[in-house]
Specification:
The chain has 304 residues and is mainly alpha-helical. It is 61% helix and 0% strand.
Length: 304
Amino acid sequence: MTIAGNPSTGLGTPPRHLPNPLPAIRPLPEYAAEGELAARYGDMKAVLQVPWMGVVTMAFAHYPNFFGELWRGLRPLCASQPFVAAVRELRAYCEDEVENLGPPAINARLAEAGYGAREVDNIRAMIEIFSHGNFPYLMIATLTRSLLLGGSFGQAGDTAAAFEGRHAPDVSQPFLLMERHHADGPTQAVYDDIMATLGLPFVNTDYRALARWPSFFALAWGDLKPSAQTAAHKALANRVYDRALALANGLPNPGGLNAEALQAAAGQDAPLGEILPVTELFHYLLPELVVNVAFFRAQLQASG
């Protein structure tokens, strides 16, 4: 199965929708990665300057030829100044817009619950890690799905100046996840509520990391849940989705990644009809995730 594309249309305007039925996703976790895949995971984290492999890319890694061609083509772009600039612009847009949702201040309630300044700083640091790292994964998801649908970006022979130095936050925070089997009953109930409210087939890494502080996470989710069910919240996720597409359309393509090669690589692993819904799922989920993390961030910055 080949999906024809029209290079003159760029990445196009694929609609944001949740695939129905939901596809099976089989993330290949970091601890199970060996050899070439382990090296690719390490390289991706180093280039993106993140301490974790996103579920999106671990799900793509289930299809080794597809994932290999994707990262071969995207690596020069992800290491470039234009990519970092686009990611920063997308983050700034999301965090500015989330203020309009009115995230309520949480600091006083945390203090009443016994949280000290150092604990709150640790939570802020963890949120900052995701606030930085989720946007590169969103851009990757945007490019991946759009290319599989036959889109294109950049021009043959593009060059892009490499980004020198560090764009990740200067924070040192242990990256520990509260897996479901580690969690007590109340935290498992929060996980179930998140999945039911947001229509998730799994609990994102972000939520499992923040659940390391269970009482904070319950408070934060209690504030976010009503917002997440509003039209304004959903509209912001749609705008972030659209902004990511617009920014991706303006990126260079120094790796020469194209729809035909990516489709061919995917076809070596599985029918395209199996892989495409996986890309659609993450392209749908990540805009809402970045809005939700921005909401958590704003809760800790709000006064009151």
